[in-house]
Amino acid sequence: MKNEGVVRAIDPLGRVVIPKEMRKRCRIEVGDPVEFRTEGGQIIITRAAQGCVFCGSEVSVDHLLGQPICLSCREKVKKEA
Ligand SMILES: [Zn+2]
Known about the structure:
Strand content: 15-25%
Strand order of the largest sheet: 1-2
CATH class of the largest domain: Mainly Beta
Bound molecules: zinc ion
CATH architecture of the largest domain: Ribbon
Mean pLDDT: 89
Structural class: alpha+beta
């Protein structure tokens, strides 16, 4: 797919809709945290890393009570409970 620019207007509160196709291509789902940074006068939006809340690992991360947790820490939590 060609990387065409899409023009969207920013609303009075500074919000803008990220086109669905771009979110899909970048694997950004509803509710995912995104990170903003500026670079050379441009705003870069990236999907924020959702590492395990206990160890920071991004491998085998699932969610427990809405928080990201890796499989290893999930097993440790299970043993502690
Ligand atoms: Zn972990």
